[in-house]
Design a protein that fits this description.
alpha+beta, Immunoglobulin-like, four-stranded antiparallel β-sheet, 20% strand
């Protein structure tokens, strides 16, 4: 009896042990589920790690963006600084250029002032009779006439035919490039205006600076419409080195035909100034202003007059 009970106890105990072992040993399903759980947990961790890494990546990108923006800002600032510097440099250059230009212009004006002179022109009558005339200082050519063109009707005809300079002198007032002008009508040493006989002299003075030219005209009285004058461009009063012209300039003077009245033999024509019954009585020629070439004989200019210039510094 006792033996049976003992065997029954052993069997029961063995069963309990088996049940406990069975409970402790996981089944394949439980193992799979456990593996999946672990996998899920690992994936979650990995995902979180990846997300954290992504955050780091975003942080890196953000840093890169910031760095890029910083670089852009720096580049922009540097570019603006460069542009500003370039602008300043350019403005500086422009200002310097303007100042230099103003300085150059100022120096040019000072140079011109340093070379300003008072000129005195003497027209000595050697062998003919001269009538009162007109003079002008100018910068533009052709203020009295243009070689090869007809008289403009501003007074040259009256000067060349009748020895009357007043109309031409008045017309010069409105001419472009005319700096100064006037009339010479009284021989040196005389109190009354009139013609200059052989041995007598006309004289006039003016102030001029570099760039100025001299023109004048005086009638040869024993002709119909001839006058002594430089060419239409005038005589430059300064050379290329800004030295004032002085001395004898007769070689730059010619006897010109106004082309306004038909020429007669010099000293014989009834319509010439000394013998005409009234001003402007000769036949109209309808010609052009040119150096006289009418077939008559006239003394060489150097035998008829002498023109000289003297200067006094301002």
């Amino acid at each position: 009896m006792l033996r049976k009970k003992w065997l029954l106890g052993v069997i029961v105990l063995s069963g309990l042990i088996l049940v406990g072992c069975a409970s402790a040993t996981p089944t394949p399903t439980e193992e799979a589920m456990a593996d999946e759980g672990m996998a899920d947990n690992m994936s979650g961790d990995e995902n979180m790690a990846d997300e954290n890494m992504s955050d780091e990546t975003m942080s890196d990108e953000s840093m890169s963006g910031d760095e890029a923006m910083a670089d852009e800002n720096m580049s922009g600032d540097e570019a603006m600084a460069d542009e500003s510097m370039s602008g300043d440099e350019m403005m500086g250059d422009e200002n310097m250029s303007d100042e230099e230009m103003m300085a150059d212009e100022s120096m040019g004006d000072e140079e011109m002032m340093d070379h300003t002179h008072t000129f005195t022109v003497r027209i000595e009558n050697l062998s003919v009779v001269l009538a009162p005339g007109v003079w002008t200082v100018h910068t533009e050519p052709g203020v009295l006439f243009t070689d090869g063109e007809a008289d403009r009707g501003d007074g040259l005809e009256a000067l060349a035919e009748d020895g009357s300079p007043s109309a031409l002198d008045s017309a010069l007032e409105g001419y472009m490039g005319v700096l100064d002008h006037g009339v010479f009508n009284t021989p040196v040493g005389m109190s009354d205006s009139g013609t200059a006989a052989p041995g007598e002299t006309y004289e006039f003075s003016f102030v001029a600076s570099p760039g100025a030219y001299l023109s004048f005209a005086t009638m040869s009285v024993q002709t119909n419409d001839l006058f002594y004058a430089p060419d239409g461009a005038g005589i430059p009063l300064f050379d290329a080195d800004l030295r004032a012209v002085r001395g004898d300039i007769t070689d730059q003077i010619s006897l010109w035909d106004a082309g306004t009245e038909v020429n007669q033999a010099p000293g014989e024509g009834a319509d010439q100034g000394a013998r005409q019954a009234a001003p402007n009585t000769g036949a109209d020629e309808g010609g052009v202003v040119q150096i006289v070439n009418d077939g008559f004989t006239y003394p060489d200019t150097a035998d008829a007059i002498r023109v000289t210039i003297t200067i006094d510094e301002q």
